[in-house]
Design brief:
six-stranded mixed β-sheet; elongated; binds zinc ion; single chain; 27 helices; binds manganese (II) ion; 614 residues; alpha/beta; binds adenosine monophosphate; 8 strands
Length: 614
């Protein structure tokens, strides 16, 4: 049979479509049940079939019955497509468990019974079983009764097998092993018991169910259930392909618990596609590569760092660890996706491209081998290589003259700056070597001293006369003195060297200053020693009244301990004790106390008007 509407009908048509559609409902479905409930399961009453010859014997046995019960156990965690592990079969007299792993290449033989229109196959919830039989063994089902469909008609919802077992057989089933690892061999007794239980009571359940259907809805109810079961057998397996629709289905079916923004959806799309690809390559389930809740957490939080990605996944899945760099890159891609940028622009936040950072990368060394970690690191390094690197540009010392050697100008400037600074102690001292005194503003200056060089370099135009304006007479009077020993020159005071005489007193200088007119050449700067005998040293004395003012290093600590109030009180007392001194202060300036022994008012500069001028 070909379905002309399909683009490749030879690939997609159900090979038993015609048989299923043309099949008449077996008459015995309308008969009142005569069978008694099955005996409780006994240990050892079930045959585990792992031998192909034994399989043929089982098949021969199956062909004797009008009805058989069928169930499958499946593994889908460590496989992309999944695979059937067990096929349980029950006749009114026997229970069989076929090891689908060892008999995989022989189980197509089941078609003889499974497609036989005279043998009713009873399943509970067969939609997946039908698909798995097709996919793994090329086995199709013709003539089926699905107790799940029957219960749907009766109660309006698909009751679980556990519920039907309790209702019709008074058996409380333990469905703990439903998600057990059915690859285990040899099968533990508990799992054998569980698998057997799924079909052991099923024929009786179907019988009771049909009676209920007849009682409540008559023959039409039975026919409806039959039609629904037919539809299940017409399900056709197709190898899943990845497409945008697959992602859309995922997006729409998920209970996310948050409203995703465009960046979240981009991350979901990228991670979903990545996960599917890795799962196919590694032949693992998508749930093993990256469980849904982790995928959603990463997509929601969009971690910036590799560690952030890991923090979303506890415990971290091994394949995520192996491809951590890839996942991190995808997350950054989502963060910088055009939709995200548009949104950021709308928020007024700046856009900036993010690249994977290679610092502080954490690898799950316990979960992935060295080679994997190295390849992840390599991926990150490659990504980092593409990051443009900028260097700071210093234009301050840029060479303006290309003729000059590299750094020459820099060195020259450095030398100039260095030369312009002189040791202040050496500034006015003549050199030990032969010196030449030349007239300079302020008198004769030894040419060999640094002060001479300074005077040549720096000119104080406002106050200092230029050498040209010096009186000719004076320069003529000044002979060139050659001090060969240098000892004599040192013994003389600097003042004497400059003025040539130390006899001039202050009175004479004042007179000369008064005489000075604008036309006259400016007088050289007269330096003279201050006479400290004129100073009033009583200012240093402790005032007769008031507290002791000697320096006390513990004072501040004590004052602090006394508290602010007492401190201010003390300050007031101080002020009164130094009243005589402060009377001379006008206006009185307020200074913030800073030093350890500072007393407000005492050391104010204005009080020192009788001190020697600085
Ligand atoms: P059952 O028909 O209850 O014996 O289940 C048959 C197979 O379906 C089991 O071996 C599981 O692999 C699979 N299965 C059943 N229930 C679930 C479930 N809730 N989630 C995932 N797989 C399931
Ligand atoms: Mn099942
Ligand atoms: Zn089962």
């Amino acid at each position: 049979m070909k379905d002309e509407e399909e683009p490749h009908p030879e690939l997609f048509v159900h090979p038993y479509k015609y048989e299923v559609e043309q099949l008449e409902m077996p008459a015995h479905l309308l008969e009142a049940p005569t069978q008694k409930p099955p005996d409780p399961m006994e240990d050892g009453g079930c045959e585990i079939v792992q031998d192909p010859e034994k399989l043929q014997a089982v098949l021969d046995d199956l062909m004797k019955y009008k009805e058989i019960a069928v169930d499958l156990e499946h593994h889908s965690y460590r496989s992309y497509l999944g695979f059937t592990c067990l096929i349980q079969l029950s006749t009114p007299d026997n229970d069989y468990i076929l090891d689908a792993l060892v008999l995989r290449g022989h189980l197509h033989l089941l078609n003889q019974a499974f497609t036989h229109p005279g043998i009713l196959k009873v399943f509970h919830g067969a939609s997946m079983d039908v698909i798995w039989l097709q996919r793994d063994f090329g086995v199709y089902v013709v003539s089926m009764w699905d107790t799940a469909e029957g219960s749907r008609l009766l109660t309006g919802r698909r009751a679980g097998l556990r519920h039907l077992l309790l209702q019709y057989c008074d058996v409380s089933a333990d469905k703990r092993y439903q998600l057990a690892d059915w690859r285990i061999r040899p099968l533990p007794d508990e799992m054998v018991r569980y698998a057997r239980q799924d079909t052991h009571y099923l024929l009786y359940i179907a019988l009771r169910q049909r009676q209920d259907l007849l009682d409540r809805g008559g023959v039409s109810f039975i026919r409806q259930a039959w039609s629904l079961s037919k539809a299940v057998t017409l399900k056709h397996y197709e190898k899943p392909l990845y497409s945008e629709e697959v992602f859309e289905d995922f997006l729409n079916s998920r209970e996310r618990g948050f409203t995703p923004n465009p960046r979240n959806i981009t991350a979901m799309r990228l991670l979903h596609a990545w996960r599917d690809n890795v799962a196919r390559v590694e032949d693992e389930s998508t749930g093993y590569v990256l469980p849904n809740h982790m995928l959603l957490k990463i997509s929601r939080e969009l971690p910036k760092t590799v560690q952030g990605v890991l923090a979303c996944c506890v415990p971290p899945p091994p394949l995520l660890c192996r491809h951590l760099a890839d996942v991190h890159t995808l997350v950054l891609q989502a963060r910088n996706s055009p939709e995200a940028s548009a949104q950021q622009g709308a928020n007024g936040k700046p856009e900036h491209s993010e690249k994977p950072a290679n610092d502080n990368v954490v690898y799950c060394t316990q979960l992935c081998d060295e080679q994997t970690a190295a390849s992840s690191l390599l991926a990150i390094e490659r990504a980092v290589e593409s990051v443009p690197i900028t260097q700071p540009v210093i234009s301050l010392f840029e060479e303006s003259d290309p003729q000059m050697g590299k750094g020459a100008k820099r060195k020259q400037r450095a030398l100039e700056i260095e030369q312009s600074f002189s040791n202040p102690f050496m500034l006015f001292l003549p050199s030990i070597a032969a010196k030449v005194l030349v007239p300079c503003p302020g008198g004769l200056v030894d040419q060999t001293t640094q002060s001479f060089a300074m005077l040549q370099k720096w000119k104080l135009l406002d106050a200092t006369p230029t050498p040209e304006k010096l009186p000719k007479k004076r320069s003529a009077e000044t002979p060139k003195v050659v001090d060969s020993s240098g000892k004599e020159g040192r013994s003389r005071s600097i003042k004497e060297q400059i003025h040539g005489s130390s006899t001039q007193n202050d009175g004479e200088i004042k007179k000369k200053k008064k005489k000075k007119t604008l036309n006259q050449a400016p007088e050289p700067i007269q330096l003279h020693q201050y006479d400290y005998s004129q100073s009033d040293f009583s200012i240093f004395n402790t005032p007769a009244t008031g507290k002791k003012k000697d320096f006390d290093p513990t004072r501040e600590t004590r004052e602090k301990a006394k508290g602010t109030r007492e401190k201010s009180k003390e300050t007031r007392e101080m002020s009164s004790s130094t009243l005589a001194l402060q009377k001379r202060i006008a206006p009185r300036r307020q200074f913030e106390p800073r030093g350890v022994s500072y007393v407000q008012g005492k050391y104010a500069r204005d009080t020192a008007h009788r001190w020697p001028r600085r």
